[in-house]
Amino acid sequence: MWGGFGFRPPTLRTGHITNRELQEFQARPDDTLIATFPKAGTSWAIEMVDVVRRGGDISGCLQIPSMMRAPFLELNPPPPFPSGIDILQNQPSPRLIKTHLPFHLLPPSFVDQNCKMVYVARNAKDTAVSYFHFHRMNKKLPEPGDWNQFFDSFLTGQVAWGSWFDHVTGWWKEKNNHRILYLFFEDIKENPAREIAKLSNFLSKKLDREAVDRIIEHTSFKNMKQNPMTNFSLLPANIFDQSVSPFMRKGEVGDWKNMFTVAQNERFEKEYRQLMSDRGPSFRMEL
Ligand SMILES: Nc1ncnc2c1ncn2[C@@H]1O[C@H](COP(=O)(O)OS(=O)(=O)O)[C@@H](OP(=O)(O)O)[C@H]1O
């Protein structure tokens, strides 16, 4: 699989990465980290950040799959496939790195090296629905059960990468202590040009009007869904079975209304009020 991307797995490694190896990961000062809770718009942000860093030139992005342009830090497949760390250690600078880690589990070198970090948050209801469909198609994740069961698992933080509530508030609390740009999926959807301007400023990359238009076009849902470099169609069906649910599924704000029952919504609202502090980020559930 990896050979097809022009990548040769390093030969030295044979086993899984340990938590200690992850914590000892050496970030470089010019790394850019993209951090999210799963299904918050990671792939969208990767594409935007990558083209912004390339000054609006999309040609490089059209040749290499997104998962190779922004390796997944904590990816830990069984041998002989390379881990995220294996891939990253062999990548030239400046690297783009994807993670779903909560802030408190991030390898300390990202803070020590004063790396730029882009965090994208998405409202919990749409995230839960997107995550449910992702579990159905991702053959490396546990079976989600029915929507009712998954809803319960999500709300109680019993899903991979834990509690959505802890994740979005954990990164929010740190955003002024480090070089963190905290963005929202809903804001990008509402006004991509405004959010690209924030990225251009944060990444110190000047973009003219044409470049911004090019980025909006290249990163539109329609284009990313058709583009094999961004739609994960290069992964075989025993990893992502897109006949069950496509990776680029709907890309909307408010799709939760098609899944949540009235009772689920009431329970969600009640627990949301208890779990989200007043000082945390505030989310829009519809536009
Ligand atoms: N360009 C663009 N515009 C709008 N929406 C987009 C875009 N790219 C990805 N998406 C939607 O983001 C959801 C996938 O989230 P992630 O990329 O974070 O997934 S992952 O955690 O990295 O697996 C998933 O959301 P749902 O459609 O609601 O399931 C994708 O469709």
From TrEMBL:
Residues 29-278 form the Sulfotransferase domain. One of its GO terms (biological process) is xenobiotic metabolic process. Its EC number is 2.8.2.-. It is found in: Cytoplasm. GO terms for cellular component: cytoplasm. Keywords: Catecholamine metabolism, Cytoplasm, Transferase. One of its GO terms (molecular function) is sulfotransferase activity. InterPro entries: P-loop_NTPase (IPR027417), Sulfotransferase_dom (IPR000863). Belongs to the sulfotransferase 1 family. This is Sulfotransferase. It comes from Paramormyrops kingsleyae. The gene is SULT1C4.
